[in-house]
């Protein structure tokens, strides 16, 4: 998954720099001014994802014989980053041009939380939508109880808060919440690539409730690998005017490996200071929110001096799309339906959610119900979204990720690191670690007085 520090990035007012203004509440779903050319219903190795049909029933809220109402959560009103809206527009335009889901057109409703209005948007979604697909909200846990109370299935791009991560009726594709999603990645850093760094690891994070659990989990995992945490610091959510004291502290502590839980703009500024005082770390975990060309530009010359890495957690890299028909397909669809939009890692995650939903919903035929679409998605034991990602077992709600893939930031852009993949672009059979600390638990149907018997 995209590491949930994207939540902090929004809170800190630092995600807006790479976004654009938001759009209307409902996205057009017919392809707009797209170029006229034949459209294939296949997506990578998925066949006939969308297509015509002759449905006659309206079996569920949000489902008629003609359309399916789908909610897409986003913080776009705050972040000004329309990546999830763009993904929804591209997928639904493509799918609807083909005939929709067995003849039912997808109607996406953008549920813009403006950061703090998560519960309001969830209550609106509960009254209109059939399911949530391809969305994300930094403070998503504020709406989880209401989502479960109205029995709304969720196919998210990204999850953030403990209450929501791995909650019931949710189909996440990023590993179970009880496990460290970065165990394989960090094992490579500490045991293979830079073993001497194990004796002096540092962690710095934005001061936000969202990151507190992440830091605690990260420290537990690192220590279990034999690492010594030599430095642990917070920086204010309002931003930092001068990163020099932080850089000097990192240097004085002799930090060799640094895990950064925050926004890429702040990281770029910190690295400029570290490079300016001639202090080179063995590695920096930039987190995958930095997997953007904007970070490359902001970090500038420091990328020649510092070693920046990010784990994509099994998503195929964009820069090697020519090796992946599915990734190339997404790029082609963006070129047709949203040529001015940026394709980001979070948008790719959104696409995996849309594809899972479309395949599951299509299998239900005319009798499209929430129970049918949820059960169908849960049957996927090696889900790859047509080749967008490494296989993920969705048949269980809490299993560790099996594969990872590591990127390195260079002055010429992000490139696959030399981590010795063993399955295409991925390293699979990754080591796992289950947390032992108490960090809270995801909400269940039982918590709201319901069970799967209530899901029809």
From TrEMBL:
* Family, as annotated: Belongs to the leucine-binding protein family.
- Species this chain originates from: Actinomadura physcomitrii
Ranges for domain Leucine-binding protein:
82-397
- Keyword check for Signal, yes or no: yes
Please report a single Pfam family linked to this protein: Peripla_BP_6
**The name this protein goes by in its record:** ABC transporter substrate-binding protein
Q: Which PROSITE patterns match?
A: PROKAR_LIPOPROTEIN
The answer, when asked if Transmembrane helix is one of the entry's keywords, is no
Its domain of life? Bacteria
Q: Which Gene3D superfamilies match?
A: 3.40.50.2300
InterPro entries assigned to the protein according to its UniProt record, in alphabetical order: Leu-bd, Peripla_BP_I
Q: Which keywords annotate this record?
A: Signal
């Amino acid at each position: 998954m995209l590491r949930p520090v994207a939540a902090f990035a929004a809170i800190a007012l630092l995600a807006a720099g790479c976004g654009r203004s938001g759009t209307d509440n409902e996205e057009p779903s017919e392809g707009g001014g797209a170029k006229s050319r034949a459209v294939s219903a296949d997506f990578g190795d998925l066949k006939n994802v969308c297509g015509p049909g002759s449905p006659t029933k309206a079996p569920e809220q949000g489902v008629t014989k003609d359309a399916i109402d789908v909610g897409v959560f986003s913080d776009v009103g705050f972040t000004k980053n329309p990546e999830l809206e763009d993904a929804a527009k591209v997928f639904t335009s493509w799918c609807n041009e083909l005939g929709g889901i067995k003849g039912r057109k997808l109607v996406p409703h953008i549920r813009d939380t403006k950061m703090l209005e998560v519960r309001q948007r969830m209550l609106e979604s509960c009254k209109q939508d059939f399911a949530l697909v391809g969305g994300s909200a930094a403070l998503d846990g504020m709406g989880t109880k209401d989502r479960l109370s109205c029995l709304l299935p969720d196919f998210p791009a990204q999850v953030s808060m403990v209450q929501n991560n791995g909650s019931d009726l949710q189909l996440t594709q990023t590993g179970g919440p009880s496990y460290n999603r970065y165990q394989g990645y960090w094992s490579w850093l500490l045991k293979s690539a830079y073993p001497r760094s194990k004796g002096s690891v540092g962690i710095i994070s934005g001061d936000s409730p969202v990151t507190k659990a992440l830091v605690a989990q990260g420290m537990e995992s690192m220590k279990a690998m034999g690492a010594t945490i030599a430095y642990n610091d917070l920086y204010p959510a309002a931003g930092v005017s001068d990163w020099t004291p932080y850089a000097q502290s990192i240097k004085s502590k002799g930090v060799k490996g640094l895990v950064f839980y925050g926004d890429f703009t702040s990281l770029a500024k910190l690295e400029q200071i570290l490079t300016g005082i001639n202090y080179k770390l063995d590695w920096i975990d930039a987190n995958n929110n930095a997997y953007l060309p904007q970070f490359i530009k902001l970090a500038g010359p420091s990328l020649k001096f510092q070693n920046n890495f990010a784990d994509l957690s099994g998503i195929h890299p964009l820069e090697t799309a020519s090796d992946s028909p599915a990734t190339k397909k997404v790029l082609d669809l963006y070129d047709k339906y949203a040529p001015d939009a940026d394709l980001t890692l979070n948008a790719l995650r959104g696409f995996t959610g849309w594809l899972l939903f479309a395949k599951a919903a299509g299998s239900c035929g005319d009798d499209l119900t929430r129970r049918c679409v949820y059960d169908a998605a849960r049957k996927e034991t090696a889900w790859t979204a047509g080749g967008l990602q490494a296989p993920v077992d969705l048949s269980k709600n809490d299993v560790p990720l099996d594969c990872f893939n590591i990127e390195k930031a260079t002055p010429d852009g992000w490139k696959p690191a030399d981590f010795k993949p063993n399955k295409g672009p991925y390293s699979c059979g990754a080591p796992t670690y289950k947390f032992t600390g108490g960090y809270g638990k995801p909400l269940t149907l039982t918590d709201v007085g319901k069970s799967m018997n209530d899901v029809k």
